[in-house]
Structure formats: structure tokens, C-alpha cells
């Protein structure tokens, strides 16, 4: 059984809803999911988990949220190569470029990103199903 950390930041709840769907997917596939706000997670927590889903919406101009999420990501990034990692998040007015940039950045740091899921605003329909599938894959 895999223990999965779902670590996220969400301003208006859309990425949080995605995180909850990822957790549903983990638990439905007999894994164990912990939902964790990014400000409550640090490098010392990595060892407790088998796999990681990181969630952050598009903020700034196609950027990660800079006050809380990105500082933690900066610290985690060098420790994530060799671990099972997926990325997810919500966006609105653009086309998901922030996720492409995030994935490129992670891969340049040596992280194997197993998959990414993006949702325009609230994750309904196919996006919700993609979140559950992401969780099931990590479990
Ligand atoms: C300050 C700010 C910056 C944003 N920048 C972008 C952006 O660059 N591209 C985009 O597609 N959406 C952008 N958005 C829209 C959010 O990504 C979108 O509302 C998302 O659903 C928020 O997710 P959350 O509910 O998890 O906070 C921005 C929203 C805010 C408040």
C-alpha cells in the first residue's frame, strides 16, 4: 500500500477540490492519502511518503503562487529526483502554460514527473475523473 502526500495551495478552492479528488483516487485504489496545505509541509516530511502529488493554480503571470507555494517548492525540488511525483492545478484565462513551465522546471531539476492534470476553474466532469485517475496511479 502506498502512502501518498497531496500537498497543495489554493486561493479560492478549485485546486483544493482537485486535491480532494486525487485523495479519493488514492483511497479508492487502496492507498493512503494525506491532504496537506503547502505551509504545513517541508523537506523533513518527504521520508514518510511513497509518492507525491503537488497542486498549485496558475498565479502571477503563468507562475506558481509566490508567497507560500513556491518557497516550499524551491526547498523540495532538489530532494524530489528519484521519487514518484505528479503535478496538478487549476487555471482560468490562459491555456495551461504555467503547468508546462512548472513541468519543464521540475524535469530540468532531475524530477521525473509521472503525469500532470489541469482543470479550468472548478474540476468538474472529465477533469474530476482525471484527478481521481491521477490518485489511483499514485496508489
Ligand atoms: C493573482 C492571480 C493570478 C492569476 N494568474 C493566472 C494566470 O497567469 N493564468 C491563468 O490561466 N489563470 C490565472 N489566474 C486564475 C486562477 O488560476 C484560477 O482562478 C484558479 O481556478 C484558482 O485556483 P484556486 O481556486 O485553487 O485558487 C490567476 C488568478 C489570480 C487571483
TrEMBL record:
<dbReference type="InterPro" id="IPR029039">
    <property type="entry name" value="Flavoprotein-like_sf"/>
</dbReference>
<comment type="function">
    <text>Low-potential electron donor to a number of redox enzymes.</text>
</comment>
<keyword id="KW-0285">Flavoprotein</keyword>
<keyword id="KW-0249">Electron transport</keyword>
<comment type="similarity">
    <text>Belongs to the flavodoxin family.</text>
</comment>
<feature type="domain" description="Flavodoxin-like">
    <location>
        <begin position="4"/>
        <end position="139"/>
    </location>
</feature>
<dbReference type="Pfam" id="PF00258">
    <property type="entry name" value="Flavodoxin_1"/>
</dbReference>
<keyword id="KW-0813">Transport</keyword>
<dbReference type="InterPro" id="IPR010087">
    <property type="entry name" value="Flav_short"/>
</dbReference>
<dbReference type="InterPro" id="IPR001226">
    <property type="entry name" value="Flavodoxin_CS"/>
</dbReference>
<keyword id="KW-0288">FMN</keyword>
<dbReference type="InterPro" id="IPR050619">
    <property type="entry name" value="Flavodoxin"/>
</dbReference>
<protein>
    <recommendedName>
        <fullName>Flavodoxin</fullName>
    </recommendedName>
</protein>
<dbReference type="InterPro" id="IPR008254">
    <property type="entry name" value="Flavodoxin/NO_synth"/>
</dbReference>
Amino acid at each position: 500500500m502506498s502512502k501518498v502526500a497531496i500537498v497543495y495551495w489554493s486561493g479560492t478552492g478549485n485546486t483544493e477540490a482537485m486535491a480532494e479528488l486525487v485523495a479519493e483516487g488514492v483511497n479508492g485504489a487502496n492507498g493512503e492519502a494525506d491532504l496537506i496545505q503547502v505551509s504545513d509541509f517541508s523537506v523533513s516530511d518527504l521520508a514518510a511518503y511513497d509518492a507525491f502529488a503537488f497542486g498549485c493554480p496558475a498565479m502571477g503571470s503563468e507562475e506558481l503562487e509566490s508567497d507560500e507555494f513556491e518557497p516550499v517548492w524551491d526547498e523540495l525540488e532538489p530532494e524530489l529526483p528519484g521519487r514518484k511525483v505528479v503535478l496538478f492545478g487549476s487555471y482560468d484565462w490562459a491555456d495551461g502554460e504555467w503547468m508546462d513551465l512548472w513541468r519543464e522546471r521540475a524535469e530540468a531539476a532531475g524530477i521525473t514527473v509521472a503525469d500532470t492534470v489541469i482543470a479550468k476553474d472548478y474540476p468538474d466532469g472529465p477533469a474530476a475523473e482525471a484527478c481521481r485517475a491521477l490518485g489511483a496511479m499514485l496508489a
